Structure formats: structure tokens, C-alpha cells
Amino acid sequence: MGEQRRIGSSLRFASRPAIVATGTVVGPMEAKGPLTQWFDTVVDDAMYGERTPEKAERRFMQDAIDIALGNASLQPENVHLMVGGDLLNQIVTSAFTAAKYPAPFLGLYGACSTCTEGLIVAAAMVDAGYADIAVSVTSSHYQSAERQFRYPIELNIQRKATSQYTVTGAGAMVVARGAGKVAVTEATIGRVLDLGIKDPNQMGPAMAPAAADTLFRHFADLGRTPEYYDLILTGDLGSVGSSILHELMRKRGVPLGDAHRDSGAWIFQGVPGTGVGGSGCACAAVTLGGYVFKQMMANELSRALVVATGALLSSLTWQQGESVPAVAHAVALEVQPQAAATS
Amino acid sequence: MTHPGKKKQHADEQAQYQRLVAVHVPKPPLVRNLVAAFVVGGLISVLGQAVLNAFMSTGMALDEASAPTLATMILISAVLTGLSIYHHVGEFAGAGAAVPITGFANTIVAAAMDFKREGFVLGMGAKMFIIAGPVIVYGIVAGVLVSAIRWWTGM
């Protein structure tokens, strides 16, 4: 146990657990965006033939898990641990979906940051030897999120200039012990920051300081600069939140540079009616499981830092006039050279 | 415990950040929104007038024709909401679609459609007026206040 596991406030996964497979499922709106070719499945009907959007969301999540397990040539019985979360109250999507699998389950809530939160927990459990194979899954659904956080779907209401559009879909990742190609090398767990943004339509601005804080600590802890990574993918800041993040990082003397993309701004680029970009647990999950993982498998990217961001509000807190606390968790991924040679 | 100086520092930090955010947040397209609201709201009113005229052409007096006109407009809005069209009008025209009685009908039908999944009693029945409720409550309150003023001043 020679290698140091805690570096400042960041973690190093000494045994290099790896993402061995992913599964991504999205709805029709996401298929119109530029990332569509990277998703495993596009479902044309966002309701998935179900009576309620909540049930449809579960179908998305279950499909993502099954596709990921299929891609890894694993059976549900092989999974030692499942972690997951979603946006619905009491994370019911994850709970109802987990009931269909035999694996022990840890439910997580980090709003839209749950994707990397889950990956950190899965990688840490695998790294520590408590699981050989762990699955991390997250989902979100436009209609179920609108119902819970905002207004009825058919209500005539004009979107604000900073509104975001919840991604309908789910992403699952299989994390395994041993030599995989896409290794989870380090992580930086976010601190909850509250800079007093009270407008729930300004989630990007609410989350940008959390992303900046996590990125800054990550680079400082590990002695790295943004140039170390081929891609720095933030969660769902949207275009407005992204430009604020760039300014915050510039002010701290660590300009993010050209390697930065925001999954929220990216997934709906050029898709009308989606405001300043996508949001939701699935936003970072399908971008990570789709684009990032597949590009790393194809050796097009060798180092990526994924920072999913979450706005930790509820419909109750904003109605009571509270501000929106936010968190961001970073995970560093690296293509393993030896595995790259043998595959 | 929280140090008072630290609290002040945090408040300063928040105020400073909100100034930064204000620079980045795009301004709402005010002129476009006003024009869209004016035109669409106006068109809905023209339609209402046409319906009213149609009823009056059958020999109804203005008083008699206004109730069926409102009912017709509500019906049109309810059907368009059910067909998933009215919220597009709202997205385009903002208050132009929300203020006329068609907008009011939309709030009730939209809520009814949404909460039907939780059942006809605890869902649709209980939550149908979740958006329209405040309009009704404060509409009645405003009506009472205005009538009281009118009664006092003997107008």
C-alpha cells in the first residue's frame, strides 16, 4: 500500500479501477443534437409507451443498465454493487429500477452531479476491494422533472433567457477491478457552495462557482494545469454558466482554455426551444458514457476530466425564497497505455 | 459559531458574484416579447369579438351573447391545450397568450392533464386549480376591495 490515496482534498485510486463498458439511452430531443451518434439507443417516444413520465424514466434507466451490462458481457448476478440516483423526490426512479436487479444498492442524490458522484463511489468501492464489479447509473426525464420542479407540461409559459431543458435519458457505467482501458485515476469531491442565486431559472450561474472551486482544488492538489487534459467536460452549466466558469477560472489564474466543453451547452447545440442548454442527471451521464468513453476507447482522447455539477434545490426551498446551493464532483479518466496496446 | 465578520465577508462575496452574473446573463428580448404579446393577445381578442358578433347576429343582446362567447373561447383553448398546441402559443407570445381567458382555461386544463396520473380525486380533482387558484383567490379579493371603495365613495 505504498501509493498515497489522499492528495490534499483529492483522491487517487491506486489500483486504477476502470470503466469497462457504458450504456446510454436518450429521447427524441437529444437525438437532434450533435452528440446523437455517440448514444447506444435513441427512443423515439419520450414516454416509452408508458402511462406516466415517471415510469418512462425507469424504462430509460433499466435500458441503460442492461445495455452497459451487455456491452461488458456481464449478467446482473455478476454485479457486486449498484449505485445510482435521479432527480425525482426520494430518488424513486433509482429505487424502483434497483428493485429489478439482485445487486446491493446505494442510492445517491447530488442533483445533476450524481453522475460523477456515483462514479466516485463505484470507483472507490472497487479500488478498496469491496466490489470487483460495480455499476453506476443516473437518469432524468424532461416531463417528470418539469412536473416536479416547475409547471404542468401543457401550461402556456415563456421560458426565461437562462432556462435549461432537462435531458431525457439515462447513462450507466460498469466499473471493474483490473486492467481496463479507461481507468478512473483521481477524483475531487465537491464542496457545497451557495453564492446567493435565488432564481431557479439560473442554475448555470448557481453551479458555476462550485465547478470552479472543484476544478481549482483538483489542479492545485495534483499539481496539474488544464492543459494536462485533452477534454475537460463540465456537467450542465449551459452556455451562460460556462462563460461564468471561464471568467471565474481566469480570475483565479487558471484559465480553462480550449479543452473545455459543457455537456449541457453541447448536447442541445442548435436544437431550438432548449434555452441555454441541457440539464439533469442524464446530461453529463450520457455525454460521459457516450462521447467521452467511446472516444477514449478509440484512442481519440487519452485524458479527460469530467466535472458534473448539481443544483441542490427543491421546489419547496425556492418557493420559500431560499437560494440555490450547488456542488460539483470531478473525476479524472485516463487511457491505460498497456491496455491500449493489447486491445 | 458563525463569526460576524465572516458573515459580512460572505455577504460581500455573494453581492460581488451576483454583479458578475448580471454581466453574463442575457437580457430578455423585451421588444420582441412585447410585440409578440401585443399581436397574439390582439388576435385572440379579435377572435373573441368575431365569436361575439356571430352570437349577436342570431338576435342575442350583448348581455346574452357574452356568456356563450366566453364558453366558446374556453372550449377552443381547452381543445388546443389537449392537442398540445396552446403551450406553443404561450412559449411564443408570453402574456399575450396567458392574460386572455384562453390562458386561464389553459392553466386549468394543463394542470388537469398533468395530475390525472395521480388519480381523478387526489390528482386531477385536488390539483386542477394549482395554477388558476391564485388568480381566482386574488381576483375575488380585488373585486371585493374595488367594490368596497366604490360603495364608500358613493360612485
Features of this protein?
heterodimer, A: about 350 residues, alpha/beta, Peroxisomal Thiolase, Chain A, domain 1, 2 domains, 13-stranded mixed beta sheet, two-stranded parallel sheet, 11 helices, 15 strands, about 25% strand, globular, disordered C terminus, B: about 160 residues, mainly alpha, about 80% helix
What does this structure look like?
- The complex is a heterodimer of chains A (343) and B (155).
- The C terminus of chain A is likely disordered.
- Chain A has 343 residues and is of the alpha/beta class.
- In chain A, strands 1, 2, 3, 4, 5, 6, 7, 9, 10, 11, 12, 14 and 15 form a 13-stranded mixed β-sheet that branches. A two-stranded parallel sheet of chain A has the order 8-13.
- Chain A has 2 domains: 171 residues, Peroxisomal Thiolase, Chain A, domain 1 (3-Layer(aba) Sandwich), CATH 3.40.47.40; 154 residues, 3-Layer(aba) Sandwich (Peroxisomal Thiolase, Chain A, domain 1), CATH 3.40.47.
- In chain A, 35% of the residues lie in helices and 23% in strands.
- In chain A, strand 5, helix 3 and strand 6 form a beta-alpha-beta unit.
- Chain A has 11 helices and 15 strands.
- Chain B has one domain.
- In chain B, 82% of the residues lie in helices and 0% in strands.
- Chain B contains 8 helices and no strands.
- Chains A and B meet through helix 7 of A and helix 1, helix 4 and helix 6 of B.
